[in-house]
C-alpha cells in the first residue's frame, strides 16, 4: 500500500532526470564525492572526485571543532577527539553526517562540491548487508531533509563494475555497460568485504565480510608502538605512520627472523635494512612526520635535545622494526589477535565456493582489489601468492588493484552517471517517492519492482 | 572429605561469546578417564600449571579451547581494536553554522517528523543490529516491504536434523530457490543445479568433462534476486579445522612467543624479554 509521503517542498511535476548527478561514496574514513553529468561524453575525470574526511574532530589545543573538509585545515593533530557518523561502514549518526554533508556540499562560500540538491540526482553507496532500518533512514534523509531530485542507493562494490577494468586483456568498457564477472575485494576502514558481481549485480549469498579494516590496523599499530612510547590518543599520527612505513611481507617468517634481536644467550645481529626511524611531528617546526632509514650511530637522547640534527631542531624519533609488517599481517591471519575468522585468502575461497561451480574459474581470474588499505606495498602480490597456494595448479588466478583504489567506486558511479538510459532505469525521483513511498523505493533498489 | 577448594569434574564446556562468532564450535567434551585425571590427586591444587595440564585433554582441540575468562579477554581486546576511540566523542557538540537564527534551528531539528526522529535518535549500530534480529525473530524475514512472505509453504515441523536436504529429497532438480531461512543450504544449490542441469550456456562443453556447466538463466535470476543476508550471516566463517593453531607473539618485542608466563599467561620470546615482562607488564603487579 502506498503511503503518502509528505515532502517539505513540492516535487517537480514532470519527474525528469536531473542534468547533474552527485555521486557520494560514503565511507567510514572519508567521503569520495563529485559531480558527473550525462549531457556530455567526456570520460569521468578522477580530479572531479574530492576526498573529504568524514569526521567531526575537536581539538583541545585549538578549542576548535573541525567538520568534514575543515579537517585538513587543522594545524595541530595531536590529541584530537573524533566523532564519526559512520559506524561499521553504515551511516548511523545522521546528525553528524548531515553536518558533514552540509559543510561539504551546501555551504554558501566554501563548499567542496557545490550543488543544489533540488536539481541534482544522488548516487549514494552503502556497505553490503545493511540493517533495513538504516536503509530506511538514509532514504528518508535524502528525500525529505536534503530534497534531492533523484536518488539511487546501492552497495558500494557494484559500482566498481562500471569503472574501467584494470586487467590488461579486457577491452575498454563502454560507459554504462558493466563488466561481466568481477570479484571485488574492498579493503576499507571498518571492514573488508568480498563481493562477486555478475553484470554489476551481486550474488547476495556469497558476500562475505572480515571484520578487520584500516581502523583495526591503526589501533593495533597504536598498541604495538605504545610498548615504547604511548600513542593511544594520537589517531591521526599513528594513521600516518601506518601509511608511511607499513608494508605486507611476502615471507613473514623470514622477515621476523631478520629483525629479531635474539635471546640473552644467543644475540643476533638485526638486519638494519628493515628498521626505520620515524620522526614525529611537533607542529611547530615539523609539520608532518616522516620516515628515514635507521641510523644506529644516532643517539636518541641527543636528538631530543636538538644536538646533531639539521638546524638544531629537536626531533622525537621512534624506531619501528617488526611492527611494519606484523600489523598488516592481521589481514591475512586474523587469528593472531584471536579473531575466529579466516584470513583474506580463505574468505575469497569461501565466497567463490558459494557460487555455482561453472563460475569458479571466471571469478578466480577477475579479482579486483579496491579500498584505501589496499595501498599497502606488497598487498596484491601476497594475496595472489596465498590464493595460488590454495587452489589447483591449473586454475588461473589474476588479482589486480585499481589504479586509484580509494576513488574507484566513485569512478564507477561516474561512469554509470554518464549513461542517461541507465540512470533513467535506476533513479527514483522525488515525485515517485512522494507517490509510492519508501517501501516501494527500497523494492526498486533491490531490483524487485519495475518502474 | 576435601578441605581444599572443591574441584568439580565437569565436562569442558566452551562458553559462546555473545558478540558474533556464531560459527564457533559449541563445546568440547573432555574424556574423563585415566589416572592423571583422578580428582583425589588434584584437590587443593592451586598450582595453575598442574591444573591446566590435567584439566586439558589429550587432543589439540581441547587444549586450545580457552577458558571462559580468557575468551572474554580476547573478545574485549578485539572490540577495542575495532572501536573508534570515541569515548568522549558522543558529547562533541556540532557547532551551529552561522546563518539566520530561525532557519538554523528548523534545519537542525529536521524538516519532517521522520527526519526529526532520525536526527534526534541516539541509537548506535549495536541497537540497530539488535532491532533487526528481534524483527527477524518476530516475522521471519528481513525486510517486510521488500521480500515476499514465506507463507507459501507451511512452516515445517520436522526437526532440523531430520529434514532432508534438497539433494536427497525427490524434488531435487527444480530450479526454485531455497528460502533464505536456511542459509547453510544455499551453497548446496550449486551442486544440485549443476547435477540436475540439462541445458547449458556453453555449447562446447558437450564433450569436455572437465568444465562444469554454467547454470541456466532461470537459476541465475534466482541467485541474483536472492535477498541479502543479514549483517551477522555475512561474517566470514572460521578457518577450516585443519588449519594451524593461532600464532602467539612475544609481548615485549614481537618475535614468536616461546615461553608462557606462569602467572598471567602472556608469551615472551627470550629471557631478557621475559624479565622486562615480569618487571612492568605482568598482571601480578595488580592482582
UniProtKB/TrEMBL annotation, chain A:
SMART domains named among the record's database cross-references: ACTIN
Note the Pfam families from the entry. Actin
**Superkingdom of the source species:** Eukaryota
What InterPro entries does its record include? Actin, ATPase_NBD
List keywords of the entry alphabetically. Answer: Cytoplasm
Report the main location listed first in the record: cytoplasm
Enumerate the subcellular locations listed in this protein's record, separating them with semicolons.
Answer: Cytoplasm
**Listed GO cellular component terms?**
cytoplasm; nucleus
Keyword presence, Cytoplasm: yes
The record describes the protein's role as: Component of the SWR1 complex which mediates the ATP-dependent exchange of histone H2A for the H2A variant HZT1 leading to transcriptional regulation of selected genes by chromatin remodeling. Involved in chromosome stability.
Note the subunit structure.
Component of the SWR1 chromatin remodeling complex.
Q: Which family does it belong to?
A: Belongs to the actin family. ARP6 subfamily.
User: What is the protein named?
Assistant: Actin-like protein ARP6
Amino acid at each position: 500500500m502506498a503511503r503518502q509521503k509528505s515532502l517539505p517542498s513540492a516535487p517537480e511535476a514532470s519527474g525528469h532526470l536531473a542534468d547533474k548527478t552527485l555521486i557520494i561514496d560514503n565511507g567510514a574514513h572519508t567521503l569520495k564525492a563529485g559531480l558527473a553529468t550525462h549531457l556530455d561524453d567526456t570520460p569521468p575525470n578522477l580530479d572531479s572526485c574530492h576526498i573529504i574526511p568524514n569526521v567531526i574532530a575537536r581539538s583541545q589545543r585549538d578549542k576548535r571543532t573541525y567538520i568534514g573538509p575543515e579537517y585538513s585545515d587543522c594545524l595541530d593533530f595531536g590529541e584530537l577527539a573524533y566523532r564519526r557518523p559512520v559506524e561499521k561502514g553504515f551511516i548511523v549518526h545522521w546528525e553528524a553526517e548531515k553536518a558533514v554533508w552540509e559543510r561539504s556540499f551546501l555551504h554558501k562560500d566554501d563548499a567542496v562540491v557545490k550543488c543544489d540538491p533540488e536539481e541534482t540526482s544522488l548516487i549514494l553507496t552503502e556497505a553490503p548487508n545493511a540493517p533495513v532500518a538504516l536503509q530506511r533512514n538514509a532514504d528518508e534523509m535524502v528525500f525529505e531533509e536534503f530534497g534531492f531530485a533523484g536518488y539511487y542507493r546501492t552497495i558500494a562494490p557494484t559500482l566498481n563494475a562500471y569503472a574501467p577494468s584494470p586487467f590488461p586483456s579486457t577491452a575498454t568498457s563502454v560507459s554504462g555497460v558493466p563488466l561481466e564477472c568481477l570479484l571485488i575485494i574492498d579493503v576499507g576502514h571498518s571492514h573488508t568485504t568480498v563481493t562477486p558481481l555478475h553484470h554489476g549485480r551481486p550474488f547476495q549469498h556469497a558476500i562475505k565480510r572480515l571484520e578487520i579494516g584500516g581502523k583495526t590496523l591503526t589501533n593495533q599499530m597504536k598498541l604495538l608502538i605504545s610498548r615504547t612510547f604511548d600513542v593511544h590518543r594520537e589517531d591521526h599520527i599513528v594513521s600516518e605512520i601506518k601509511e608511511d612505513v607499513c608494508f605486507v611481507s611476502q615471507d613473514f617468517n623470514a622477515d621476523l627472523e631478520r629483525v629479531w634481536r635474539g635471546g640473552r644467550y644467543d644475540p643476533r645481529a638485526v638486519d638494519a635494512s628493515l628498521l626505520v626511524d620515524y620522526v614525529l611531528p611537533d607542529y611547530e617546526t615539523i609539520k608532518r612526520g616522516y620516515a628515514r632509514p635507521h641510523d644506529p650511530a644516532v643517539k636518541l637522547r641527543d636528538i631530543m635535545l636538538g644536538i646533531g640534527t639539521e638546524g638544531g631542531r629537536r626531533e622525537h624519533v621512534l624506531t619501528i622494526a617488526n611492527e611494519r609488517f606484523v600489523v598488516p599481517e592481521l589481514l591475512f591471519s586474523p587469528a593472531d589477535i584471536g579473531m575466529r575468522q579466516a584470513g583474506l585468502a580463505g574468505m575469497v575461497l569461501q565466497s567463490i565456493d558459494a557460487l555455482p561451480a561453472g563460475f569458479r574459474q571466471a571469478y578466480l581470474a577477475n579479482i579486483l582489489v579496491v579500498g584505501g588499505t589496499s595501498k599497502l606495498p606488497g598487498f596484491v602480490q601476497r594475496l595472489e601468492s596465498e590464493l595460488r597456494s590454495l587452489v589447483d595448479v591449473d586454475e588461473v588466478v589474476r588479482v589486480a588493484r585499481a589504479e586509484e583504489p580509494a576513488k574507484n567506486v566513485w569512478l564507477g558511479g561516474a561512469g554509470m552517471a554518464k549513461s542517461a538510459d541507465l540512470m533513467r532505469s535506476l533513479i527514483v525521483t522525488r515525485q515517485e517517492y512522494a507517490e509510492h513511498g519508501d517501501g516501494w523505493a527500497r523494492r526498486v533498489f533491490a531490483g524487485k519492482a519495475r518502474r | 572429605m576435601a578441605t581444599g577448594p572443591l574441584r568439580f569434574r565437569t565436562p569442558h564446556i566452551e562458553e559462546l561469546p555473545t558478540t558474533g562468532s556464531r560459527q564457533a564450535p559449541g563445546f568440547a567434551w573432555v574424556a574423563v578417564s585415566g589416572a592423571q585425571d583422578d580428582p583425589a590427586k588434584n584437590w587443593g591444587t592451586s598450582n595453575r600449571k598442574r591444573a591446566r595440564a590435567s584439566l586439558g585433554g589429550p587432543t589439540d582441540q581441547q587444549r586450545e579451547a580457552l577458558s571462559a575468562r580468557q575468551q572474554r579477554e580476547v573478545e574485549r581486546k578485539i572490540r577495542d581494536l575495532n572501536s573508534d576511540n570515541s569515548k568522549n566523542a558522543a558529547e562533541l557538540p556540532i557547532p551551529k553554522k552561522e546563518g539566520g537564527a530561525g532557519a538554523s534551528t528548523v534545519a537542525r531539528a529536521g524538516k519532517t517528523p521522520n527526519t526529526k526522529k532520525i536526527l534526534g535518535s541516539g541509537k548506535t549500530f549495536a541497537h540497530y543490529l539488535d532491532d533487526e534480529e528481534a524483527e527477524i525473530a518476530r516475522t521471519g524475514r528481513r525486510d517486510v516491504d521488500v521480500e515476499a512472505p514465506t507463507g507459501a509453504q507451511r512452516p515445517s515441523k520436522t526437526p532440523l536434523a531430520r529434514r532432508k536436504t534438497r539433494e536427497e529429497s525427490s524434488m531435487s532438480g527444480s530450479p526454485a530457490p531455497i528460502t533464505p531461512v536456511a542459509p547453510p543450504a544455499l551453497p548446496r544449490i550449486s551442486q544440485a543445479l549443476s547435477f540436475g542441469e540439462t541445458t547449458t550456456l556453453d555449447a562446447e562443453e558437450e564433450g569436455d568433462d572437465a568444465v562444469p556447466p554454467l547454470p541456466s538463466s532461470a537459476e541465475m535470476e534466482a541467485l541474483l534476486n536472492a535477498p541479502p543476508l543479514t549483517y551477522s550471516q555475512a561474517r566470514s566463517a572460521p578457518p577450516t579445522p585443519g588449519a594451524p593453531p593461532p600464532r602467539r607473539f612475544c609481548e615485549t618485542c614481537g618475535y614468536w612467543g616461546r615461553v608462557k608466563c606462569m602467572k598471567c599467561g602472556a608469551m615472551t620470546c627470550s629471557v631478557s624479554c621475559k624479565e622486562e615482562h615480569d618487571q612492568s607488564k605482568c598482571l601480578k603487579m595488580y592482582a
